[in-house]
Amino acid sequence: AVLAATITPSLAELRRVGARNANLGGVDFSGEDLSAIDFTGADLSRAVLDGAVARSANFSSARLAGLRLGSATADDAVFDSADMTGADLRAAAWGRPKSARNLVLAQAAAGGAVLGSSSGALDMRGANLTGADLTGATLDGIDLSGGTLADAFLSEASLQKTVLDQAMLDRETLTLSRLNKASMRGARAHG
Predict the structure, then answer these.
(1) Which tens digit of pLDDT belongs to each residue from 3-24?
(2) Which of 16, 94, 102, 186 is the most buried (most CB within 10 A)?
(3) Which residues contact 125 (CB under 8 A, 6 or more apart)?
(4) Quick one: CA dihedral 187, 157, 75, 29, positive or negative?
């Protein structure tokens, strides 16, 4: 009989050589320091980052489907083109990531999450938030230009100073949302 085993590198090894294109699906990184690790193209599907510190980490093009973020801190981290489809970001406060262009948060559960701050803009241009539950979430100061928010739930969400220029929305998407000083030039609403 052949036994299949998954070998997870140590954090020291990840810090030393990085985690580019690594298969780290389902790994529990709760409370760990992942600062400055390069996860470009890595598979972290169903991984748990609750309480992890990921300052200046690079998650570009990483597969983060089903990820549980919890209270992780991702100041200056890069999430460009990362796929967080179905991720659990409920009540998360990820700090101040550097960039999240073309991030996919489709079908994510992010009710009550703090993903933005009116004091610092986050570049999420082209992000896909289709079907995401962002009820009561804070998306203040995020640039979602050209993004897709079709079928997203943003009831009671805060989008103050958020840029939604050229974004695709449903007419119901922004029901009861706070849009103080938000920009919606050229936004397309359907439904």
Answers:
(1) 444 546 788 888 888 899 999 9
(2) 94
(3) 101, 102, 143, 144, 145, 146, 147
(4) negative
Query: Is the Cα torsion angle 180, 75, 124, 156 positive or negative in sign?
Result: negative
Q: Facing residues of 120 across strands?
A: 117
The closest alpha carbon to 124, from 150, 103, 95, belongs to 103
The token duo for 150 is: 């079709």
Q: How far is CA 43 from CA 62, 128, 133, in A?
A: 6, 19, 23
pTM summary value: 0.90
Interval 100-151: pLDDT, tens: 999 999 999 999 999 887 677 899 999 999 999 999 999 999 999 999 999 9
Token pair listed for 165: 């220029």
Alpha-carbon distance 164 to 148, whole Å? 9
The span from the CA of 55 to the CA of 184, in Å, is: 31
Q: Please name which of 121, 118, 134, 119 lies closest in space to residue 170, comparing C-alpha atoms.
A: 134
